[in-house]
Amino acid sequence: MEKHINVVAALQIGLSIFNLLIALLIFTVLRFAVAFVDDANGATIVSLIADIIAIAFIIISIPGIIAGLGLYKRKEWARILTLILSVIEIFSFPFGTAIGIYSIWALIQPETVAAFSKNEVTNF
Prior knowledge:
Largest sheet: none
Radius of gyration: 18 Å
Number of strands: 0
Order of helices and strands: HHHHH
């Protein structure tokens, strides 16, 4: 199960980085579109939407990166955080769904739970 834990960690980090890149793309495109809006109120609204979307994607992505790094270190809190994030990712079709289902499967296996429990005992 060590291999599956490492794969889940890499997938969590990868999906989070992908979400950050999407945020950057949406932010850039919407900020570029502001130049073509003639109405000052419309430009302000498009600019505000770009900011909100970028901030939302960043807020969503940061826990995934933290959870992935914690999984590499075999921290129990990272396993729990990844399970929570995986349930949320299931609604992000198609990649999030696949990654979420795989992550849940890998992290609820008895061998995985034992690996994290054993690591927590040895850290003290």
